[in-house]
Amino acid sequence: MIALLPMYLLCDGPADLRCDCPSVFELSYSERHPRPARVLMYESNASPGPAFVRATARILHRLVAQARQVIEACSRTGAQGCPSCVQSSRCTELNEVTSKRDALWVARALEQWSREYPLPQ
Ligand SMILES: [Zn+2]
Asked: Which pTM was predicted?
């Protein structure tokens, strides 16, 4: 979704927004601090700025629909996905925990949720 964001907002998606995933390289830390299932996007710049997260929330329904379409259209069969669908060259965990199947589930769930519960204007 972050890679698709520049199609909707004037930003450098991977530079302006980040995601968070469990580290397979710090298993002891992950075991001490279990994380709930979640989708987390945050701005890489902590100073008051263009508020990309807020702007992203307003177009979330279109963004997740396009992300779902990209994943569904990818013909590669690897379980972890590929750079064309779910992997990121900026992933600090080297895409070790990406999952094409799970990403598709998340995109479909978010698409349905954002349709049923749109943000108030
Ligand atoms: Zn792919």
From this structure: 0.77
Query: CA-to-CA distance for 12 and 51, rounded, in angstroms?
Result: 13
**68 vs 97, residue with greater confidence:** 68
Please tell me the total count of domains within the chain: 1
Residue 92 Cα to ligand 1 middle (Å): 19
Ligand 1: centre distance to CA 2 (Å): 15
Q: How far is the CA of 110 from the centre of ligand 1 (A)?
A: 19
User: Would you state the pLDDT for residue 89?
Assistant: 82
Burial-class residue 27 by CB neighbours within 10 Å (0-12, 13-18, 19+): exposed
Distance 48 CA to ligand 1 centre (A): 35
Q: For residue 121, tell me if it sits in a domain.
A: no
**Domain range enclosing 72:** 5-116
